[in-house]
Amino acid sequence: MSLNDGEFLRRQQLVKRYVLDFDLDRLLHTFRANAGLPSLAEPLGGWEAPDCGLRGHFVGHFLSAASKFFVDANNTEDERERLKAEVDTIVAVMKQCALPNGYVSAFPESEIDRLEQKEFRTIWAPYYTLHKIMQGLVDAYRYTGNKDALTLAVNLAHYIAGRFAKLGYWKIENILHPTRLNPLNEYGGIGEVMYTLYGLTGDETILETAKIFDRDYFTGRLINGIDMLEDLHANTHLPVALAAMRRYDATGDERYKTAAENFYRFLHTRTFANGSNSSKATHYTTVYGVSDKAEHWGAAGDLHDALTCGESESCNGHNTELIASELFSWNGSADVLAHVARLKFNAILNCFSPRTGLSQYHQPMGVGVRKVFSTADQSFWCCTGTGVEGGSDLQKDIWFQSVPSADTADVTGLANPVDDVPAVVLSAFIASRLYWTALGVTLDLASAYPADLNVGITVRTAAAASVRFRLSLRATLVASVTVEDTDGAPVPADVNVNNEGFVTVERAFNDGDIIRIVLRADLHAEPLAGAPKRVALLYGDVLLAAEGNRANIGTIPAESLAGRVTPANAGDGTDADAGLHLRLTMSDAEAPLDLLPLYDVPGGEDYSVYLNTDAAHPVAPCHFVPVAEGANDPS
Question: What is the largest CA-CA distance in the chain?
């Protein structure tokens, strides 16, 4: 899989340039310092500073990003060589810094000693950071074949196993019970990466250690169908739910499939129009910092006071996409696939600055809010790292296929269809290229959606013979599907709408055939859960934002909002180069609101997403500073 054109590719290239140009000596300074090795590099700032408890977490994300970028089909030969050199350099330095017992990190073992010996209140998430490091090593092995990385990951897993083997049940329960608001003992997806590592090695010690991180207070209750999400820190627990999915994949234990399915059902009741989640806890305080109002889950089905101007942590969007795409690979639900597409445009793409490729921490959707992006070397929030890694695989979850393939995880496999016809499912109309290796077929998707509702998929076959396969598209967005041959002449194809919410097109395709798809101009309003007078406008998969700080639009029924939206110019409001620009006519004589995709809003400018249709209760702009550490960059 690779991106072809458009805004996804453009922002991915910005992230790649950031990775390629990064000073590795600065990146690895704290690893060398912790190991007692000389380093003259200037330390990084923010959450990678030498005195920060999370130092080293971004290094793990960076290693994952460089490894995934290495297999990007859009690389030049020079980029490929430089990315491989970066991966090998980072792994080599980690190997130099590793202790004989397998421990490798940018902070000393004494931090984990303190976690075990005392209450965890003054220790900042050591297992969270070790997860990022281990994940980076696993990705370096999976994507670039670096065998030292696998050895280091296995040794670190055994080190962790050895530590837990010395602890009793209640000590483990204490250090792995992150239920406090903004918990410092967050342990991230370390269970998930260990299940992945078990799949690579078959090492039973690693499997048993992974199971330790599946805690009964969370996963056990999900197995039993209990919704306990209220007041929990969201991105602490999204990776734990993902670990349950990996446990099911690794062991076939149906209880963990049930846990993940229940979790997704509970999560859906706390989801914004961008497809993501997290805001203030129901019983929040300000004792532990601003994240109490931005990074937790509230009550099910009630987001009426969740627009804090700092909601929707970017990490949550990335992890929710992983969960939703895995769930779709299990059940093939069109609704879940629509969720994946909504996340791609409005939480994933929107995470990245259109100017720098750097990431937002939170993604506010209230009134008169602004985007704030990280800086190049002084922030390194959790979402900075997740963003860099997420930018390296923006092409994932666009295509899903149902036959075994030699492709990487960019293409997710579905259960085989009931017949013998190979099938592929398209989740989102993002310009991309699928290398369907098993069939010897390449599918080139040309799309400028949402600015252009005409989409074409060119079929290329490796052999002269035709290849029969089936393409499935989400029916809610598709107006028509036809097929043309290489000369532009219509050719017969079986086009059907099934009961599962998909339009399917099937034929024995020849080289050069083009699948022509016309999409609906699906403009609709979506109310905020628990606050039906606050509504967001969407154009198909794309969430719209109103320029400026006006959100009070008078007493206009939500169902009539779409009828008030018109093109912002003399044309149809779309231009493949300029993007989508629409206009909402206000009630009375008030000036209209200009609308554009949320992901197109740059930093430093006011915008509003959820509009207020209750004239008796106007809403006002609010100001929220999402982070305290690291300089904020509005560019």
Answer: 74
Beta strands (DSSP E) in 185-279 are: none
CA 150: distance to chain centroid?
25
Tell me the two tokens of residue 315: 């990490």
Cα distance between residue 371 and residue 352, in whole Å = 10
Q: State the number of CA atoms in the 13 A half-sphere of 94 facing the CB.
A: 31
Which pLDDT tens digit goes with each residue over 482-501?
999 999 999 999 999 999 99
Task: Give the tens place of pLDDT for each residue, 401-443.
Answer: 874 443 433 444 454 455 689 999 999 999 999 999 989 999 9
In 375-501, DSSP assigns E strands to 399-401, 412-413, 423-426, 432-436, 441-446, 454-461, 467-474, 478-484, 494-497
Residue matched to tokens 């074409």: 456
What amino acid is encoded at 327 in this protein? Answer: L
Residues 189, 242 contacting (CB under 8 angstroms): yes
Name the burial class of residue 76, with classes exposed (0-12), middle (13-18) and buried (19+) by CB atoms within 10 angstroms of its CB: exposed
Determine the pLDDT at residue 121. 60
Give SS3 for 410: coil
Tell how strand 582-584 and strand 494-497 pair up. Answer: unpaired
Answer for the pair 33, 47: CB distance below 8 angstroms, yes or no.
no
CA dist 552 and 179 (Å) reads 37
Torsions phi, psi for 12 (to 5 deg): -60, -40
The whole-number average pLDDT for the span 169-190 is: 92
Q: Are 352 and 15 in contact (CB under 8 A)?
A: yes
Backbone torsions φ then ψ of 39, nearest 5 degrees: -155, 125
The verdict on whether omega for the bond into residue 597 sits within 30 degrees of 0, i.e. cis, is: no
What is the spatial distance between Cα 207 and Cα 41, in angstroms, rounded to a whole number?
Answer: 38
Cβ atoms 313, 295 nearer than 8 A: yes
Residue among 468, 443, 466 nearest 456 (CA): 443
Quick one: tokens of 115?
Answer: 């976690």
Neighbours of 268 (CB within 10 A): 16
The pair of three-digit structure tokens given for residue 276, joined into one six-digit string: 């993501």
* Residue 48 burial by Cβ neighbours in a 10 Å radius (0-12, 13-18, 19+): buried
pTM equals 0.95
Checking if the pLDDT of 367 tops 60, the result is yes
* pLDDT computed for residue 590 by the predictor: 84
